[in-house]
Amino acid sequence: MIKSLFRALAAVIVVQASEAIPAPSATSSPETETTNPNFGPVPGLSQLFDDYTGLAPPFPANVTKPVPATAIGNPAPDDALWQNLLAAEWIIYSFYQLAVTTFNASSFTTLGLPNNTFQRVTEIRDNEAGHLRIFQDKISRFSVKPGACEYDFPLDGQATNFLALSTLIEIASMVFLTGLVQEARDDTAKGALTAISQVETRHEIWSLLEVWGVDPFGGPSDTVFPYPNEILDITNRFVVPGSCPHANPPFPNPSQNLPRIGIASWTDSVTVGSTVQLNFTDPDNQPHFEKNAEYYAVFFHGVDVISAPLVMTQRPEQPPNATIPAEFEAKGVVIMVIATMRGAPTLSSVVAGPAIFLQQPAELGIKVI
Ligand SMILES: *[C@@H]1O[C@H](CO)[C@@H](O)[C@H](O)[C@H]1NC(C)=O
Ligand SMILES: *[C@@H]1O[C@H](CO)[C@@H](O)[C@H](O)[C@H]1NC(C)=O
Ligand SMILES: *[C@@H]1O[C@H](CO)[C@@H](O)[C@H](O)[C@H]1NC(C)=O
Ligand SMILES: *[C@@H]1O[C@H](CO)[C@@H](O)[C@H](O)[C@H]1NC(C)=O
Ligand SMILES: *[C@@H]1O[C@H](CO)[C@@H](O)[C@H](O)[C@H]1NC(C)=O
Q: Ligand 4: which of 260, 265, 286, 369 to mutate, most ligand atoms within 8 Å of CB?
C-alpha cells in the first residue's frame, strides 16, 4: 500500500518536473557538470575558490539554472536544509559578485581603507562560490539543486553601502548557521555547517578589524538562534519577487511569513539598554495581537535568552516599544522576536520578527535588518 502510494507520488513528481524544466538533451551534459562532485574545480583542492580575480562568475556560478533531481527516491534527510542554504548562498554570492563587478581598488582606497580591500572582497566572493559548490554537492540526487534568482541590493553604487550591508549579511549568515546546525540530522552535516560558519566569521573579523577599525571580538559566544528559516526569510527581501526559477523549492522552506520588525526612523541607538519604538514595516503583513493575551519581546544574545512582557500602547495603530536588555554585554549581535511565550520555546510561539540589533561596529548599530 505504502509502496504503491509512493510510486504514484513519484510519478506525479516526475510529470511536474518535466513540465517545469526541459529534460537535458542527449548532446548537452549539464548532468555531468553539476551532479558529479568531481566535475570542475573542487572546493578545498582548487585555488579558484581562494584567489580568482576575474570579473566573470567563477564555477559553479557560471551555471545559474537549477539542477533537476537525477533519480527518483526519498530525499536525503538533510536535503531541505541544504536547499535552503544553497538558495541563501546564491543571494550572498551574488552580493559579492555585484561588488566585484561594480567597484575596483580605488573605490576603497579613496575611502581611506587599506589598498588590499578590493582584493579581500574578491577573495570573499571566491569563498562564497566555493560554498555554492559545497552545498550543491550536499544535496542528494533525489532533490533539485536550486538555481539563482534575480537580486536587488540597495548599494546605489556606493562602496560604503556595500561595506555596511556586507557586515549585516555576514552576521546573518553566522546566525542562521547556528540554527541550521540544530536542525541537521547527519553529524557530518553539523560539522560542515560549523566549518562554514567559521568562514563567515573570518570574513566578519576581517571587516571589523580592517574596515571598521574596531575590536573584532564579539564576547565569549556568538549568538545562537534556534529558528534559522526566520533569519533566511529576512534575506529574502533581496530577491526580486517572482524572479526565481520555477523548479526552485520555495525559499525558505518552510516559511512562517512572519510580520517584519523594523524600528522607528528617529531611533538614535540600538545598544543594550536602549528603548526602541518598533515598526511593523510591511503594511500587508501586520501582526495580530489578541486582546487580553500576553506577548513577550524575547532577546537572544550569546547563549542567553532574556524575555520581557511586551507593553502595548493604548492606540492600536502604534506598535509597542521594546527595551534591549541592559544585562547583555555591548558586543556582537542581539536578536529579538515577539512571542506568545517567555523564551520563545517553540517555532509557533514566534509571531513577529526577528529583528537584528548589531552592537559592533557601533556605527552600524542603528541599521537593523
Ligand atoms: C563553467 O565553468 C566550468 C569550470 O571552469 C567549465 O568547465 C564549464 O564549461 C563552464 N560552463 C559554462 C556554461 O560556462
Ligand atoms: C576605478 O573605477 C573608476 C570609476 O569607474 C575609474 O575612474 C578608475 O580609473 C578605476 N581605478 C582603477 C585602479 O581601475
Ligand atoms: C599597499 O599598502 C601597503 C601598506 O600601507 C604599502 O606598503 C604598499 O606599498 C601599498 N601597495 C600599493 C600597490 O600601493
Ligand atoms: C515604518 O515603516 C514604514 C515602511 O517602511 C515607513 O514608511 C515608515 O516611515 C516607518 N515609520 C517610522 C516611524 O519609522
Ligand atoms: C514608548 O512608547 C510611548 C507610548 O507609545 C512613547 O510616547 C514613547 O516615546 C516611547 N519611548 C521610546 C523611547 O520610544
A: 265
